[in-house]
Amino acid sequence: MRSFFKRRAFLKRSAVLGSATVAAVAAPQLAANCSEHEEEKSSPEPKTQKGYQETEHVKTYYQTLRD
């Protein structure tokens, strides 16, 4: 029964160590992606209207319907 507990402890420690390794490798990459995303946010984007817009193309189409 004692070997069962040793094996169980080994598996738990392996899982924790594996998770910590993945976190340590992924953290710098995530930080780099986050800083790039923040730079994109900081640049002001021109506000565009959503939905229906009456452009010259639409006005021309309406004019052809009237004729």
Can you describe what's shown?
The protein contains two helices and no strands. By secondary structure, the chain is mainly alpha-helical. It has a domain at 1-41. The radius of gyration is 30 Å and the shape is rod-shaped.
Q: What is the count of β-strands?
A: 0
Structural class: mainly alpha
Radius of gyration based on Cα positions: 30 Å
How far the N terminus sits from the C terminus, by CA atoms, comes to: 94 Å
Shape: rod-shaped
Low confidence ranges: none
Number of H- or I-type helical stretches = 2
Beta-strand content: under 5%
Q: Spell the H/E element sequence.
A: HH
> Mean pLDDT score, rounded?
79
In short:
Helix content is 78%, strand content 0%.
Describe the secondary structure blueprint for this structure.
Elements: H1 2-42, H2 56-66
Q: What are the key terms here?
A:
67 residues, mainly alpha, 2 helices
